[in-house]
Amino acid sequence: xxxxxxxxxxxxxxxxxxxxxxxxxxxxxxxxxxxxxxxxxxxxxxxxxxxxxxxxxxxxxxxxxxxxxxxxxxxxxxxxxxxxxxxxxxxxxxxxxxxxxxxxxxxxxxxxxxxxxxxxxxxxxxxxxxxxxxxxxxxxxxxxxxxxxxxxxxxxxxxxxxxxxxxxxxxxxxxxxxxxxxxxxxxxxxxxxxxxxxxxxxxxxxxxxxxxxxxxxxxxxxxxxxxxxxxxxxxxxxxxxxxxxxxxxxxxxxxxxxxxxxxxxxxxxxxxxxxxxxxxxxxxxxxxxxxxxxxxxxxxxxxxxxxxxxxxxxxxxxxxxxxxxxxxxxxxxxxxxxxxxxxxxxxxxxxxxxxxxxxxxxxxxxxxxxxxxxxxxxxxxxxxxxxxxxxxxxxxx
Length: 397
Hints:
Layout: H1 24-51, H2 59-64, H3 82-95, H4 97-117, H5 120-131, E1 137-140, H6 150-153, E2 157-161, E3 164-174, E4 182-189, E5 195-201, E6 207-211, E7 224-234, H7 245-280, E8 282-283, E9 286-287, H8 292-320, H9 326-350, H10 363-374, H11 379-391
Parallel strand pairs: 1-4, 2-4
Antiparallel strand pairs: 2-3, 3-7, 4-5, 6-7, 8-9
Helix pairs in contact: 1-3, 3-4, 3-7, 4-5, 4-7, 7-8, 7-9, 7-10, 8-9, 9-10, 9-11
């Protein structure tokens, strides 16, 4: 169902009315996304989270809504801003951080890797099929022994033999990996010690993806351990414009701000559930929303949300202007996730003991926040990226 901007109400938690800065087309698109998420995703999110399964039935509808590659000119449905894409990440995180993470991997990491570092031929081959949801992608950077130090500590190797590359190594925490048709694998070239990217299809001999079990956060996200044992990849599937870790960093710069927006969405989802509960729950003969200490928790949560939206809006606006640097996305991610962690704790507190069960609406956000806090760069490393920018000194090398 097509919506107009006028039919898209502001979120109650958009206290300073930031969403009004978007174009009419952008607001209408967000309205359609919100309608779909609330109708078809919200009712099943807890069930799939509890079962640690991903609702694959959402993949095609989200493609129809333009959620895969909205920042890629070749496949986007309409010209849009980084601020709009941030709001889309917020709307997704507000309903289900697992679905938001699926899109972050498919669109932000896998598709952007091809858009940034792939040849024109590779972009035409892969991006339209990924935008339609026909092909699911993943992004293989993090390793069992290399996370924050992936720029220097990458252990997966690539050795060229004629027109073929032989990959050996392992990856960990790779989102979408058990569902993926193609995985962008980052490996060090044995010849020059530079990081290069490869498009590895999941049916390639020697490639194995094993689901990581028993997670306490983002349970519906299909994270996996990947092993690469003499995986042979043709030169035609090496990302032709990726010759060093700078290409990897360019992809991460594009996605990090959207992860910050997703963190705000998690805060919003927890806040909305806590506010509903406070209005309905009665203690001492009246709704707890009338109690001063409950109002204090709710207002502190809303202040965190409002400050985070302001910061993320400007970080995305700088990206739109071509002025966004690593330090800007890093600050947004570090700040928004720290405030998210604080906010989901306060929202859980509003619900008392009921806050630890799924059906009261906060518990899933409370748990998922822990994963968002750490992925796409820990708070500590993102802080040091900002520290390097303001002091001129790198404290992590």
